[in-house]
Amino acid sequence: MGEVYLARDPKINRDVAIKVLPPTFSSDLERLRRFELEVQAAGQLNHPNILAVYDVQMHDGSPYIVFELLEGETLRQRLHRGPLPARKAIDYGVQIARGLTAAHEKGIVHRDLKPDNLFITQDDRVKILDFGLAQLSEPVHNVEEQTDVLTRRMNTDPGAVMGTAGYMAPEQIRAQRVDHRADIFSLGLILYEMLSGHRAFHGDSAVETLNAILKEDPPQLSESNDQVNPALERVVLHCLEKNPGQRFQSAGDVAFALDSLSGLSSNRTIPDAFSEAPRQKSWWRWVIAAALLIGLIMTMFLAVPYLIRTPREEGLIRFSVLLPQNVTISGTTPALAVSPDGRHIAFIAAQEGQNLLWLRPLDSFTPKPLTALEISGSPTPPFWSPDSRFIGFFAGGKLKKIEASGGPPQILCDIPGPRGGTWNRDGVIVVGTTAGALSRVSQAGGQPTPVTTLDQSRFETSHRWPNFLPDGRHFLFFVRSGKVENTGVYIGSLDSKETRQLLPNVLSAVYAPPGFLLFLRNETLMAQPFDPNALRLTGEQVPIGEQVAFNSGLGRGSFSVSQNGVLAFRTGGGQIDQPLWFDRTGKQMGSLAEPGVFFNLALSPIDEKQIAVDRTDPQTGTNDIWLYDLSRDGVSSRFTTDPAGDSAPLWSPDAKRIVWTSYRTGNWSLYEKAASGGGSEEVILASPEEKVPDDWSSDAQFIVYESFSSKTKWDLWLLRASDRNASPLLQSEFNERQAQLSPDGKYIAYTSDKSGSAAVYVQTFPFSGSEWRISTGVGAQPRWRKDGRELFYIAADSKLMVVDVKLGPPFQVGVPKLLFETRVPTIIDFRNHYVVAADGKRFLINTITEARGSTPIDVVKNWTALLKR
After folding, report:
1. Ramachandran class of 818: left when φ > 0, alpha when ψ lies in -120 to 50, beta otherwise
2. Which residues contact 547 (CB under 8 A, 6 or more apart)?
């Protein structure tokens, strides 16, 4: 990026280093922007273990930075002479960790930490160089030596992998969101190399090295250096955990752990300073040690009364709630709720494929199941009564409550598509839904009544995740809108239909005493002072948690807080999935795209050369439709661009046109456009009801779509192509969704919850009264094989099932058989997370990239202490 010169500063009579961006590069606005970013990053840091910036100036149109001049060698040069003694490696590790701590506290992540970017001065001080360059530098080209290939800096384009091949964290390799814990992984790699003399992960090519980081464990340090203390090796391996949530959570913690091992340089238990002294002259050292030990015991004895008098609530207490064996948290955004008194956590988790509502007392190690739940897809979090006596939850399309002490659940009302609930001291419960406004219902049960109204002028599509404020009349809630600027957290009232936006472009918020709002910005949990009487924000936002699990499509994060300072959350960041190809045995055969957030896969008919898919923008949470060309190795192109978002693509039978749904005009409408991308977009059906296209008849005469009604829930409708008239196809008091016409057009498969839970059914088309249940248990997302001989669906535990069928008359159906287990993000909603190739031998399945179900729940008591950090 620039040239570096040795210079003399006559003002203070010292040598300095000057980095200059040449005039030829100054005209490159992108280079200039990167240079300025480097200056901004480096200029914020003032620490003895970080290269210092003295000045920034311009000369003849060229910007330059004045750095301190370092004399010595890089760590890479030092390692060319072999591994370091354990004590020296610990010393250097502590210095690096302290420098990283200073940078991380400023919100700066290095992203390219390696021996080449660490300098050892003549007085044995470690300096970290090139902060921010991993995201600023140009990639290195034409590298020939193998050692250089292994440290090649990868492409730095937006959304691409950033870093150096041999020193990247797994999340960097996957191009996922990166935070300070990536630097901790790189620090672990450097510690390993200092102690062993070779890299922890070493392949014959950069690709093999990256694969090793993702999938393999490094060789034990004791294999190459038997003088490494086991405690030191544990520290190194803890830095090298594949999952960021299982590593050290701060560089300061690494520094503390290493510093505590400074006297344990080898596998000997006695420090070297003692063993080097003559044995006959060392007795007096033991006398001193014994005296110090006695003094320490007496000090502790005298301090006990003081410690007892000190309230524990004044300090920060952190611990994890582990799940029982064979129990996994359900859903991509775990559903949990802390009781108002801070004594219990309620959460939803699966055991042997069955979703259960669990209760974990915080003074116990064992959670207990309260009741089984009929849930398909991502569960909605439970919520508590103000006195912590009852838990409200959703199951089988109904709102229920159950006593925390146990007993049978009580049904309060029907709530299709629930999206959160909150309970005030007057016995009023407010609930949200997937496609509507908020409603209120009595804690004794009854008919829900609207409490908010969707604002058409703001293109609002859903009110969800309500949370009562202290007065019990006002509440917070999240608004989904077709316009990004109208999405965010609002304030509403039981006494008025008027609402106002409080926090734009953030996910669900909750009130936390003594006067804060907690909410998510992407994956960071923020706290901001809030006056509940004036109903206004009063201070700055402060981050208190990172990598918190969230789902931008649902608009919520996985966290909860009590009335007395207990905070609980799950880590893992946002939902990350990837469309992957599998064969009938479940063997992965390839991928369609890099990891991201995807929904509604649609394979083009006839030639099967294109895939249409929803892809979510992680910054705005809105969807657009993208096309992937399978004949060109998955080259992608954007099909829709409206900021309101577009979803659920459906191909015409000749693969020449695509229909989808959008709220861009203030009403849910079906749009149509040529699959080539040319021509204009045409509205083919407009009405206020939410609509999702499901299938297009092979003769091109009908489009089957889902439509939501507050009276009859989700129903199946037909849109006639000739005159674009719509008529109900299957309308009942239950939810009917995910319709798929058979290849011969004489039968229709769909999902219904009329049995109490979602199941797959088949009827004749047009309906004649004949009906067959396909799934023996919970099932959803039916798909026909092109010849009509098999029907596929996803079972409750995300298993891909297949049923032999014979198109009639008479229609015949076999027994469902398991093909293989999947990791689809949800089972039942309007989303279809897989497609079947015509031969029934290949499946493209939207797959969650990381199984997070067994990770623990993090609990913080007295969370406000985090604000002081």
Report:
1. beta
2. 179, 181, 244, 245, 523, 571, 572, 573
SS3 annotation, 207-219:
HHHHHHHHHCCCC
Residue 555 pLDDT: 80
> Up-side HSE of residue 326: CA atoms within 13 Å toward CB?
4
Residues whose CB is less than 8 angstroms from the CB of residue 397 and which lie 6 or more positions away in sequence, other chains included = 414, 415, 416, 713, 735, 753
Residues 6+ apart with CB under 8 A from 780: 376, 737, 738, 751, 758, 760, 793, 794, 827, 828
* HEC assignment per residue over 700-732: CCEEEEEEEECCCEEEEEEEECCCCCEEEEECC
Q: How far apart are the C-alpha atoms of 387 and 344, rounded to whole Å?
A: 12
pLDDT of residue 623: 82
pTM higher than the cut 0.85:
no
Alpha-carbon distance of 802 to 828, in angstroms, equals 17
Q: Is 813 helix (H, G, I), strand (E, B) or coil?
A: strand
Backbone angles phi, psi at 264, to 5 degrees: -115, 70
pLDDT at 663: 76
For residue 671, what pLDDT is reported? 95
Q: How are beta strands 857-861 and 669-674 bridged, if at all?
A: unpaired
Closest C-alpha to 610, from 272, 271, 844: 844
> Identity (one letter) of the amino acid at 677?
G
DSSP label at 764?
A: E
Rg (CA), the chain: 30
Residue 484 Cα to chain centre, angstroms: 20
**What is the rounded distance in angstroms from the CA atom of residue 214 to the CA atom of residue 270?**
37
Pair of tokens at residue 524: 């960071």
**Annotated catalytic residue 112:** yes
Say how far apart CA 214 and CA 170 lie, in whole Å: 6
Cα gap 343→361, rounded to integer Å: 6
DSSP state of 125: -
Residues in the chain predicted with pLDDT less than 70, given as ranges, are 1, 22-43, 131-163, 262-315, 330-333, 352-353, 374-378, 435, 553, 573-575, 618-621, 666, 710, 826-830, 850-855, 869
Sheet with strand 496-504: strands edge to edge: 460-468, 474-481, 488-493, 496-504
| CB environment 591-615: b (16+ within 10 A), e (fewer) | ebbebbbbbbbbbbbeebebbbbbb
SS3 state at 614 = strand
How many other CB atoms are found less than 10 A from the CB of residue 851?
A: 9
Given this model, what pLDDT does residue 361 score?
A: 92
Structure-token match 């099909």, residue found: 639
The continuous run of DSSP H or E covering 34 comes out as helix 29-43
Which one of 9, 55, 60, 112 is the catalytic residue? Answer: 112
The answer for residues whose C-beta is within 8 angstroms of residue 779's C-beta and 6 or more apart is: 751, 758, 759, 760, 793, 794, 795, 796, 801, 816
Structure tokens given for 183: 């630097």
- Three-state SS string across 616-654, please? ECCCCCCEEEEEEEHHHCCEEEECCCCCCCEEEEEECCC
Cis peptide before 693 (omega within 30 of 0): no
* Domains located in the chain, CATH noted: 3-68 (3.30.200.20), 72-272 (1.10.510.10), 283-310 (no CATH), 317-574 (2.120.10.30), 577-848 (2.120.10.30)
Q: Is the dihedral of CA 189, 195, 197, 201 positive or negative?
A: negative
Q: Give the sheet arrangement for strand 62-68, strand by strand.
A: 3-9, 14-20, 62-68, 53-59
595's tokens: 């990891």
Torsion of Cα atoms, 566 then 572 then 574 then 576, to 10°: -160
Evaluate whether 245 touches 855 at the Cβ level (below 8 Å): yes
Q: In sequence order, which residues have a C-beta less than 8 Å from that of residue 695 and are 6 or more positions away?
A: 650, 703, 704, 739, 740, 741
d(CA 625, CA 639): 5
Which residue type is seen at 792?
F
